[in-house]
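Q: Protein A?
A:
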Amino acid sequence: MGGRREEILDAALAIADEHGLDAVSMRAVADRVGVTPMALYRHVSDKAALLDGVVGRLLATLLPSDAEAGHAWNERLSALAHACRAITQLHPWAAHLLFSRPAVTPDAVRAVDVIYTALIEAGVPEREVPRLERLISTFVLGFAASEASGRFAPGPLDPRSHRGRLPDGELPGHSRIAPWLDLPVDLGAEFEADLDDIRRLIETVAREQG
């Protein structure tokens, strides 16, 4: 990556951290870098390309090190998932961006390839690899986005406290699990349990469809 392009992406990341993703624009980045907006077009063709570059910059941090590349497939997937969650904890706006932009830059495509390779090594039939990659990516990004947005924030979950926003009549599912709805949630432990479920799903697909 050229020095100026790297500076442009750094500026976009800084603006998003300071003011939110909506504040990232070609003009705002140009002002931060100290050039005219037209000067940016030699390095990023438009705002969409700028955001794609930011996605690539974020996903580049997920790529395994040379030492990690030799780990077992499930360890590599787990490391990738934890790294993605860590990114969204550091940059809460990143979850929405990663969810909404395709992986089109070289670093972004390499991150996806890490998942493809791990699934192939797990014995998943090649025809099933793209589907499982989408499932894994959707889970990890969805969890990260929900956590970053506060959807998983602790608080009273008892439906009785939100009766005005709930439909009339009984809610049998809520009633059945009511004793567990208000318990404190350890999101780290829940994330680990979800990853274990995904690992077992991968192993089942590899065993039954391989």
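Q: Protein B?
A:
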Amino acid sequence: MGSIVVDVMLKPEILDPQGQAVGGALPRLGFSGFTDVRQGKRFVLTVDGDVTDEHLAAAREAAEKLLSNPVIEDVVSVRVLEQDSEQDEDAEQ
């Protein structure tokens, strides 16, 4: 099975209250050096077999039409999730 990752972020001019709340909490919890926090959304789309160019094109179209709100969000990434990356992310959690 293959997976495609779609990352969506609020446009820079849109206020991000959740990001601001996290940004305010970081120093109180001892995490310093961060100047801004923006929150976003991540979608993982799974396909049977290997990811093809057609799958990626369909994922890009879905990202623009369904997974994001183009008025306030940008699709920042549509990419194949590599197996090693998936295992690394599972280990981090």
